[in-house]
């Protein structure tokens, strides 16, 4: 299959649903989500941070922060970010990768997204080791994880989402009426060599 410049959301949704339908039990987490009621997620419809319900289904974002200044969930602004439309007000400051991930959720008809910078109280990380210790469990409990493996910072965006086309180079040649195209590199190879692969949590 020749990759297109933009993501085929219908195909992606089909793959996700097929995966869940064929081997949900083997992929299901044995961790009870939100045991202490502290898990927060982004509601991509209300554009705000919300407290997750006990059986909340969400996608998680794994990405590289880099040296980009971005909005953070803090004790001082937590109540503000819980207000409907709060993320609309800080959209210009919100990194492109997070905005693209929110749009991807909407296109896949998923309501909730977990992003570390906006769902973990950043000024409690050094004082509440459980938040960091539970990050692996959050990724495990997610319905799926969006991996921004080709980015060097959080403003790189998700290739193929929004106005951000894929830039993979391909050479085409026609021999005796048959069109051939060069294969792109394996995504796993690119991920292993990426900045993202140096993260503490992937």
From TrEMBL:
It comes from Mollisia scopiformis. Keywords: Signal. It holds the Pfam family HET. InterPro entries: HET. The keyword Phosphoprotein does not apply. It comes from the Eukaryota. Residues 58-202 form the Heterokaryon incompatibility domain. PANTHER family: DOMAIN PROTEIN, PUTATIVE-RELATED, HETEROKARYON INCOMPATIBILITY DOMAIN-CONTAINING PROTEIN. Residues 1-21 form the signal peptide. This is Heterokaryon incompatibility domain-containing protein.
């Amino acid at each position: 299959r020749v990759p297109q410049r933009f993501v085929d959301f219908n195909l992606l949704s089909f793959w996700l649903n097929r995966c869940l339908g064929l081997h949900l039990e083997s992929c299901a987490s044995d961790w009870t989500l939100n045991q202490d009621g502290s898990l927060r997620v982004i509601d991509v419809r209300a554009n705000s941070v919300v407290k997750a319900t006990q059986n909340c289904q969400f996608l998680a974002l794994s990405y590289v922060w880099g040296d980009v200044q971005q909005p953070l969930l803090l004790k001082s602004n937590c109540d503000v970010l819980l207000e409907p439309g709060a993320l609309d007000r800080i959209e210009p400051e919100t990194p492109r990768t997070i905005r693209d991930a929110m749009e991807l959720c909407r296109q896949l008809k998923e309501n909730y997204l977990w992003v570390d910078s906006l769902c973990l109280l950043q000024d409690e990380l050094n004082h509440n080791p459980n938040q960091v210790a539970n990050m692996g469990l959050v990724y495990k409990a997610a319905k799926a994880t969006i991996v921004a493996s080709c980015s060097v910072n959080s403003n790189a965006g998700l290739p193929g989402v929004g106005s951000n086309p894929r830039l993979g180079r391909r050479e085409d040649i026609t021999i005796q009426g048959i069109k051939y195209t060069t294969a792109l590199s394996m995504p796993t190879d690119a991920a292993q060599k990426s900045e993202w692969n140096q993260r503490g949590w992937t």
